[in-house]
Design goal:
Strands 2-3-4-1-5 form a 5-stranded parallel β-sheet, with helices on both faces. The protein is elongated and about 70 Å long. With 322 residues, the protein is of the alpha/beta class. The protein is built from 15 helices and 5 strands. Helix 10 runs antiparallel to helix 11 and helix 12 runs antiparallel to helix 14. The protein has 2 domains: 159 residues, Rossmann fold; 116 residues, Zinc Finger, Delta Prime, domain 3 (Up-down Bundle), CATH 1.20.272. It binds zinc ion. The site of zinc ion has 7 residues, from helix 3.
Length: 322
């Protein structure tokens, strides 16, 4: 356990360790950023380090560290909602728990994962604790939309925004997860665009690989009737994946553009270089740029939820158009 074992987010780890080593720990911290950035992991390791009375959770066998690992440390409390929001009752329960002094060390950590789904009443209730926290209480929040929290909460919280991971960091973190049959992890690393969880999910879900292979076959032969039908069926069956599919298509066209400009290193789809070259040979730079901008528009419209089937039709037409 502990911050020492974490890979990436170097400046964040540095700041957290400094807070601990200089004894300057405040009462409220937040980890914010998109899904898949490791907010929860960082929050938990930070909590473990805060709770260790010997200030060294790394390989520490003290009762606090040991019970933290087992999930039974009484000085750690996580708000678990199981619903689409966190209501005032859960915050009241937290406050009741916080009224008692720590059992092992001199701190208690309260973790609210997904704090941005707290209701306004819950936030106002939590505010009371933030305004006058017992000296041993540390509250840790995680949030995708940190800005959606009440300004009064934010003004009393130190927010750490998670930075995108570098390709090398993602490579190092996913190494133990790589299945044997993956011959080329580079695509997953580049395609995840610094969001660790994306790379992990793509590697773990074989359906993602199938989806990618189908999309590439389709882009290779956009006028082949059976490819069109197959792609249309897959898109209809995997509605949630559409933004990812559009990203995949854009990654192929961006690579084609690079190839036409004579750049062949650093392609996202480097494991499919031959196919990329083949597709590139059928397009002009102008056409690729038009297509990329059309795809960006389609992607944006999907976020605001236009008619799904219509969206698929527009997408297919855009790719087929010569
Ligand atoms: Zn310890």
């Amino acid at each position: 356990m502990g911050l020492n074992k974490l890979i990436g987010q170097k400046s964040l780890v540095f700041q957290l360790k400094k807070l601990l080593s200089e004894g300057k720990l405040g009462h409220a911290y937040a980890f914010s950023g998109p899904e898949g950035m490791g907010k929860r992991t960082f929050a938990l390791e930070f909590a473990a380090d805060i709770l260790c009375p010997f200030g060294k959770s790394d390989g520490c066998g003290c009762v606090s560290c040991r019970t933290f690992l087992e999930g039974t440390n009484p000085d750690f409390y996580e708000v678990i909602s199981g619903k689409s929001s966190i209501g005032i009752d859960l915050i009241r329960a937290l406050q009741e728990h916080a009224a008692n002094r720590p059992a092992y060390g001199n701190k208690k950590v309260y973790f609210i994962d997904g704090a941005d789904i707290m209701t306004v009443q819950a936030q106002n209730c939590l505010l009371k604790t933030l305004e006058e926290p017992p000296e041993y209480v540390v509250i840790i929040l995680s949030a995708v939309n940190y800005e959606s929290l009440l300004p009064t909460i934010r003004s009393r919280t130190v927010n750490f925004r998670m930075e995108p991971y570098s390709e090398d960091e993602i490579r190092e973190i996913i190494r133990p997860l790589l299945p044997r049959n993956i011959e080329e992890p580079d695509f997953y690393i580049k395609f995840s665009r610094g969001i660790l969880g994306n790379a992990v999910r793509m590697l773990e879900e074989s359906s993602f690989r199938d989806l990618r292979l189908q999309i590439i076959s389709f882009l290779r032969k956009p006028d082949d009737f059976s490819q069109i039908e197959k792609t249309r069926r897959i898109l209809t069956e995997n509605r949630d994946e559409l933004p990812t599919v559009i990203d995949m298509i854009m990654s192929v066209y961006r690579d084609c553009l690079m190839v036409l400009m004579g750049i062949e290193s650093g392609l996202i789809n480097s494991d499919k270089k031959d196919i990329i070259k083949e597709i590139a040979s059928t397009c002009s730079k102008r056409k690729l740029m038009d297509r990329l901008s059309a795809l960006e528009t389609i992607q944006r419209n999907f976020r605001y939820n236009i008619n799904y089937q219509l969206g698929i039709d527009v997408l297919m037409l855009e790719i087929q158009e010569v």
